[in-house]
From TrEMBL:
Organism the protein comes from: Paenibacillus thalictri
Any one Gene Ontology molecular-function term assigned to this protein's record: isomerase activity
PANTHER family: HYDROXYPYRUVATE ISOMERASE, XYLOSE ISOMERASE-LIKE TIM BARREL DOMAIN-CONTAINING PROTEIN
UniProt keyword list: Isomerase
Gene3D superfamilies associated with the record: Divalent-metal-dependent TIM barrel enzymes
Superkingdom of source: Bacteria
Name used for this protein in its record: Sugar phosphate isomerase/epimerase
InterPro entries cross-referenced by the UniProt entry: IolE/XylAMocC-like (IPR050312), Xyl_isomerase-like_sf (IPR036237), Xyl_isomerase-like_TIM-brl (IPR013022)
Signal peptide, first to last residue: none
Residue ranges annotated for the Xylose isomerase-like TIM barrel domain, each copy included: 20-307
Amino acid sequence: MKLGVFLKLFRTRSLEDALAHAASQGIQAVEIATGGYVGNHHLNPKEVLGNTQEIENIKRAVTQNGLTISALSCHGNPLHPNPAIAQEHHEDFINSILLAKELGVDTVVNFSGCPGESETSQRPVWITCPWPTDFIETLTWQWEQKVIPYWEKMGKFAREQGIKIAVEPHPGFVVYNTETAIRLCEAAGDHVGINFDPSHLFWQGMDPVQSILRLGSKIYHFHAKDTAIYKHNNELNGVLDTKSYRDIANRSWAFRTVGYGHGAELWKEMISALRTAGYSGAISIEHEDGLMSTQEGFSKAVRFLQDVLITEDSGEMYWAR
């Protein structure tokens, strides 16, 4: 496995400076944002697609720093009921796949998206319970009329381009847990898998180790981000918390740098489960910790993960004897 970082952490730096800084901190792989909600601060597909010289410049900047690109990421909602937003995010998605092919990158990360409740909706509607029956009827309509048709098409396009799509399960979108992830992968085909981010599973009460083992070879990419559960607020209000992420004192949970929500033992179990499942890709650090600066959270995550990662060689040491 390689220690990686989602380069959006350093979006105020130029691509060249961000790459150099990541490498200086012990990073081996970078994930680069190319659209959607995360923007395209370092790499705008529309500006570089088909530009052979610029593609070579990007490749050179990466390799000169001893890095590889683990994925391009365009976390968006191509199923948004607002046609303008849906089209923008869909184009980002298509262009990210095409750019990945030109760069020799094999994975593009995205969300599953979330439609509205009907053809006349203006905003996405995330269904979290089956009753009143309006909810289950809406959920059925979303999957049958919007989700599956779109992802069948994108799965086919990804296969034609030779690119893997890693969908990140995330509450607020139709894929948010293990069974919805499996449902989407089965509908979309073998070029659609999962970007596994345990932070979104922790607060839902899921066991990420069991989820990793269940998803197995469908895990195409991994985000390293943690979540702290605040017992005093959770026991009063539960985990469905709509307060601002900045209101940490009153929230039931908050995103944290790895090691500040769960200890090394659990992270070792997750890394071992990934290895058991055959994953040998990047462990990409993502920072959304409201109690630490970006650099502090990043530095702590690097040190923490360096102690728990399993390298490609170490898994072969015993059996090689």
